[in-house]
Each structure stands twice: as C-alpha cells, then as structure tokens.
Design a protein that fits this description.
CATH superfamily of the largest domain: HAD superfamily/HAD-like
Mean pLDDT: 94
Number of helices: 8
Distance between the termini: 21 Å
Largest sheet: 7 strands, parallel
Order of helices and strands: EEEEHEHEHEEEHEEEHEHEHEHE
Strand content: 15-25%
Helix content: 25-40%
Number of domains: 2
CATH topology of the largest domain: Rossmann fold
Shape: globular
C-alpha cells in the first residue's frame, strides 16, 4: 500500500495493539525522540496496548532502567522483549556451547549475566563468540581479521540482535547483523536472536484475548528486522523513513523499490511518529 501518513491518529481506529522498535523509533543516535514519546503516550491514553521489541543486547531489566532514566514513562508499555533476554534464556537452557565466550565488543555480555559463563581475553580460549547489537555499531574493516580467526577456530557466533545497521549520532553505522552475514559467508555457524523472528510477535500477543493480527501495528525503521517481522506475523506495518535507510527526495519511489528488494509489503510510512 505504501500510504503516507503525517499523523498516526488518522489511522488509530485500524489497530488495537502496537509492536514498537526502540532504536530508530524511541531513540535516534542515543537521543530520545520527543514527538515519538508524546505519540506513544496518546496511543496509551486512547486504549492501545503497546509492546517494545528491541534487538539490543541488553536484557529487559537493563533496557527498562535505561529508558526510565531518560524520563520515558514506562507504565505505557504492556510488555517488553529484547534480543539480549532471548539469548539469556537460550544460554540458560543450552549447556552444549561450553563455558567460555569471546565478546567482539571487548565487554562482558548482558546475555550471560548471572549465568556460569566466563569471558575470555583471547579468542583461542573461547568456546563461542558473542556479537551484540549496540548503539555504537561496529567497524567492519577492524572486525574482519577477528572473524577469520574465529572461523579458523571453528567457533559458533551468537548474533544477539540481527540489525545490519544502527543509527548513531554520527550517522548510520554497520551493526552485528552485518558481522553475522559476513561470518556466514565465510562459512561460520551463526545462532541468531531477535527480530525478525516471528515467534517474538507471537509471544508478546499470546495472552491478548480475541487478538486479530491485522489489528496489530508494527512500527520500525528497518526493513530486514521490523518490517519483515510485521509481514511474517500478518500485522500492519508503519515504516519510519528517517531511520537506518535514510530515505530522502522521492521517498515514495525509493520506498517502493526498497520494499520490492526485500520482498515486503509496507502499509504506511512516515518521517516521524506524530499523533
């Protein structure tokens, strides 16, 4: 459909439940998008159920306090899920990966917090590799030799968050999804967590009585994660054009071509989320 909307209130009667991304929607380059928060508050006041779906490597509790500290009213959200939380659950219940991991970020992983895993300083001491989505992005040129070493050691990679790019204060940067794609092309094993896994949408809506999937609206700025999950779930989609794809000029034509390239249907698009 690719229908442009300036005010989401114009279509408020077409949906009851909202699945909303975080980076590129609530936050842009680490800065809170005020118009988005105001819009979500009005959605909540109008009776909509809103869930946050983030590909961050943070666990839910960490993201909750991260947003709360930025004066975002967390009571408006019905539920939250993060790629980090999903990976934590996986690691808690799968003991066959080993006990030692190497994090590409060089920092302890949120996903292993509270679990009996140890971070290795050297990859040769690791049983698996962790790549987590963060707001900082990654330098692909620097990461390539690391991937070659991981491949040589035959280490599986946990891709916690599948974003191929993120919006940074300096512009759009590559993210761990791009790292995972490169590792897979080299022949490495990838274990992905987060959007566009349609089971996330199913999990967040399973307790909604009488839910109609076409009465759900997925809001995000990324074709390969947000919009793909929305299409797979059978929800309506609202694509924000000033996120990771940075559409400018003839936005309608660019969006049509972009959606076709990804094989997706986009119901609505907007530059900003405004009520």
């Amino acid at each position: 459909m690719n229908r442009k909307i300036n005010y989401i209130s114009r279509i408020k009667d077409e949906f009851d439940f909202v699945l909303c991304g975080v980076n590129g929607v609530l936050l842009r380059g680490g800065t809170v998008v005020g118009s988005c928060i105001d819009t979500l508050i009005k959605m909540y006041q109008s009776g909509k159920k809103i869930a946050l779906v983030s590909n961050t490597g943070m666990r839910v509790r960490d993201l909750y306090y991260f947003l709360k500290q930025r004066d975002i009213p967390m009571n408006i959200f019905y539920a939250m899920i993060t790629a980090g939380e999903i990976a934590h659950f996986y690691l808690k219940n799968h003991k066959n990966l080993g006990k030692t991991y190497y994090n590409l970020s060089g920092c302890p992983s949120h996903a292993v917090d509270g679990l009996p895993y140890r971070m290795a300083e050297s990859m040769v001491m690791a049983d698996f590799v962790v790549a987590e989505t963060s707001a900082e992005g990654v330098d692909m040129a620097e990461i390539f030799p690391v991937l070659e070493q991981a491949l040589h050691l035959n280490l599986p990679m946990l891709c916690i968050g599948n974003n191929t790019s993120v919006v940074h204060e300096d512009g759009v940067r590559a993210s761990v999804g791009a790292v995972a794609e490169k590792y897979a092309l080299l022949g490495g094993k990838i274990i992905p967590f987060g959007k566009p896994d349609v089971r996330i949408a199913s999990y967040l809506t399973e307790n909604i009585s009488g839910l109609q999937k076409k009465r759900c609206l997925v809001i995000g700025d990324c074709m390969s994660t947000d919009m793909r999950m929305g299409n797979a779930f059978g929800a309506q989609t609202l694509f924000l054009t000033n996120g990771v794809h940075l559409l400018v000029g003839d936005v309608a034509q660019q969006l049509t071509e972009l959606a076709d390239n990804y094989g997706l249907n986009i119901d609505y698009y907007a530059e900003e989320l405004v009520w």
